[in-house]
Structures are given as structure tokens and as C-alpha cells.
């Protein structure tokens, strides 16, 4: 039996370091500051690009999301790990995806972006990562009580191909209707002409880099939620070392390229409301834990045929759109008008889901 090097401890460290370096490379190529790769933010941009929300500054079909899924899909096919499966509480996973996206957009970033923000000197990320760890720790308390959403079942190949096909259709749309310079719309797609959505690396460069990341992450099982979960539950550091390597590599790259600026204020696409930076990620972290993976890992699992992970990812897409339509998303000026309410309601719903699916008395 061949050993999967990527799944070894040196392998996961190498993958984490590679993700950190490539994310900083994307920032240098044009992505927003401290946002080389952010699943929550980029799914929000895709939602805007499809017209699901009309916040004009965050509308763009981000090729990074497409590349992550297709890279995982190709890696799974090549390694014979493509296994169509689904049926594990799909509606609950969809709701958890909505909550995760709304919580993450109160903080303004997924776990990967929290790491990249810290590597760029954004001290607010300390609170975000602290909140993420707290939310995941709360999730482990449910795990100890037997929390489970049930087993998924083998499905048809068509079911396993459904999410990669949807993502491929997004790629086709983006190629058929590319942005016209200075125009906010191209065919059915919307494009930002200012703000974070207007800042992006060249399309093919983003697609290619994310494709490589998707392949490596699928083979290594890279997951930020899993890193904290394993550390809290079992004391395992395997995945956590990969997350640390991502931080160290991104920090080193930022220091070398002049991209490190320490402080709480004046950070790109960030706010300094300490309490809700923390609490937003508590809610998001708990949702990630209950769903069984961070946003990146959910995309990689969807690429290898997991329909339940695909449902979670679609929930995040809808949640990101709702965050802007309902005024819960934060901006550089602070949290949204209803960000506090969304964070608290989402947390309570997660608790209900957690208690309802515990198997032990």
C-alpha cells in the first residue's frame, strides 16, 4: 500500500506552509489585503456576482472557490477517493452553513482569513481566532455527549458530481461573461467597480493557484476546525501543526514583502469591535464544529463527492447573501445594523441543534 505523504505530519506542515505562501502571493497579485483566500468572503462575492445580494462593492465570481473544488475533485478522482455520499441531516447542514457565513461576516473572515489577518499584523484576528477556538471547544462538549447528525449513505455518481458540476457552471459563466472594464454588469453577472470585490488577482492565476491548493488540501485532509477539535478532544497536534505552518509561512512572506502592519486600527477590510469580532467567530466556530469541518474542508469534501458538504457550502452562499440583504454583515466601519442579533440568534440555534442531536442522556 502506498503511503500518502500529504497525510503525514511533514506533509500536512508542507501543505499548510504552501497555503500560507500562495495566499500571500494572491494578495500581491491583486486580492484584497490579508484576503489571499477567504471562503466566507469569496462566497459572499460570488453571491453578489450572481445577483443574490446587491451590495455593489462585493460582487465578483471568485475563481479561488472554483479552483478549490475542482482541484479537490481531480485529486479525489486520481487517488480513487471520489465517493458519492449524502443523507446526513442535509437541512440541518444547510442551516449551519447559513449561520456559519453570517457569523464569519460579523468578524469579516473565515478561519483561513483569520490566520492571514494575523499574519499581516491585524491584531483583531487574535480575538477572531480566540472566538473560533471557543466555538469549536463548545462543539467538542457536544461530541463528548454523543453528538451526531447521522451517517451518510452511498449515493449515485450523479449525486457526487452535482456540486462539482455547479462549480464548473460558475466557471463557464465567468469565462463567457467576463468583466467589462468599468462596467458593473456583464450579461447576467454583476461585478464590483470599487471596494473589495473590485480587487482581485488575474482570473487564471487565481484559478490555477486555488486548483493546486485544492489538490493538496484534499490529499492532506487540511482543516482548521479539525485542528482545534483534535487538539481539544485528543491532544493530537497533527492538523494543528499544519495550521501553525500556514501562519508562520504567511507571516514570513508578509515580513519579507513589506505586508506586515501590526495594530488594531487601519487594517484592510476589518473593524475593531473587539467583543463582536470574538463573538461572531464563536458562533461560526460552533457551526463549523457541528457541521464537521471548516469552510475550506467542506469545499474539499464536496469536491470528492460528499453531497452533505455541498449542502453546507450552498448554505454558506445563501447565508452570505442574507448577511448583506438583512444588514448583518460588518464593514470596515463596524458591525452591521443587525449583526449582534444575527450572532446571538445563530448561536442559540446551534445550541438547539447540538442538544437535539446528542445520543447520550
- Biggest sheet layout: 2 strands, antiparallel
Strand order of the largest sheet: 1-2
Fraction in helix: 55-70%
Assembly status: single chain
General shape? globular
Rounded mean pLDDT score:
97
Give the amount of beta strand, in percent: under 5%
> Count the strands?
4
Query: What is the helix/strand order?
Result: HHHEHHHEHEEHHHHHHH
Instruction: Compute the separation of the termini in Å.
Output: 42 Å
Uncertain residue ranges: none
Radius of gyration using CA atoms only: 19 Å
Structural class: mainly alpha
Number of helices: 14
Write the layout of secondary structure elements.
Layout: H1 9-29, H2 39-49, H3 63-78, E1 85-86, H4 90-107, H5 111-119, H6 124-144, E2 153-154, H7 157-176, E3 185-186, E4 189-190, H8 203-220, H9 224-234, H10 238-257, H11 274-291, H12 295-303, H13 307-325, H14 339-356
Antiparallel strand pairs: 1-2, 3-4
Description of the structure:
The protein is an all-alpha fold and 361 residues long. Helices cover 63% and strands 2% of the residues. It contains 14 helices and 4 strands. Strands 1-2 form a two-stranded antiparallel ribbon. A hairpin with a 2-residue loop joins strand 3 and strand 4. Helix 5 (111-119) runs antiparallel to helix 6 (124-144). It starts with 8 loop residues before the first helix and ends in a 5-residue tail after the last helix.
Amino acid at each position: 500500500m502506498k503511503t500518502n505523504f500529504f497525510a503525514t505530519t511533514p506533509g500536512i506542515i508542507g501543505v499548510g506552509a504552501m497555503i500560507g505562501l500562495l495566499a500571500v502571493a494572491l494578495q500581491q497579485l491583486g486580492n484584497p489585503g490579508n484576503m489571499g483566500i477567504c471562503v466566507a468572503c469569496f462566497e459572499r462575492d460570488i453571491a453578489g456576482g450572481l445577483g443574490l445580494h446587491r451590495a455593489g462593492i462585493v460582487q465578483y465570481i471568485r475563481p479561488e472557490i472554483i479552483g478549490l473544488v475542482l482541484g479537490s475533485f481531480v485529486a479525489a478522482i486520481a487517488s480513487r477517493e471520489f465517493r458519492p455520499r449524502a443523507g446526513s441531516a442535509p437541512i440541518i447542514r444547510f442551516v449551519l452553513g447559513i449561520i456559519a457565513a453570517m457569523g464569519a461576516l460579523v468578524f469579516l473572515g473565515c478561519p483561513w482569513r483569520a490566520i492571514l489577518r494575523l499574519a499581516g499584523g491585524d491584531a483583531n484576528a487574535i480575538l477572531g481566532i480566540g472566538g473560533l477556538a471557543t466555538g469549536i471547544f463548545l462543539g467538542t462538549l457536544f461530541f463528548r455527549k454523543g453528538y451526531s447528525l447521522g451517517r451518510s449513505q452511498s449515493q449515485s455518481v450523479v449525486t457526487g458530481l452535482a456540486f462539482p458540476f455547479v462549480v464548473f457552471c460558475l466557471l463557464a459563466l465567468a469565462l463567457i461573461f467576463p468583466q467589462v472594464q468599468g462596467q458593473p454588469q456583464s450579461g447576467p453577472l454583476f461585478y464590483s467597480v470599487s471596494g473589495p470585490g473590485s480587487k482581485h488577482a488575474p482570473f487564471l492565476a487565481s484559478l490555477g493557484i486555488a486548483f493546486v491548493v485544492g489538490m493538496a488540501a484534499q490529499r492532506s485532509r487540511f482543516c482548521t476546525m479539525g485542528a482545534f477539535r483534535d487538539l481539544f478532544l485528543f491532544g493530537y497536534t497533527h492538523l494543528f501543526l499544519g495550521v501553525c505552518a500556514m501562519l508562520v509561512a504567511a507571516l514570513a512572506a508578509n515580513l519579507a514583502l513589506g505586508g506586515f502592519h501590526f495594530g488594531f486600527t487601519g487594517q484592510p477590510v476589518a473593524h475593531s469591535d473587539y467583543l463582536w469580532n470574538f463573538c461572531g467567530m464563536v458562533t461560526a466556530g460552533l457551526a463549523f464544529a457541528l457541521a464537521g469541518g471548516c469552510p475550506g474542508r467542506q469545499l474539499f469534501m464536496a469536491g470528492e463527492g460528499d453531497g452533505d458538504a455541498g449542502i453546507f457550502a450552498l448554505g454558506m452562499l445563501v447565508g452570505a447573501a442574507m448577511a448583506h440583504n438583512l444588514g448583518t454583515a460588518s464593514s470596515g466601519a463596524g458591525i452591521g445594523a443587525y449583526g449582534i442579533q444575527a450572532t446571538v440568534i445563530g448561536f442559540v440555534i446551534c445550541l438547539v441543534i447540538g442538544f437535539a442531536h446528542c445520543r447520550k442522556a
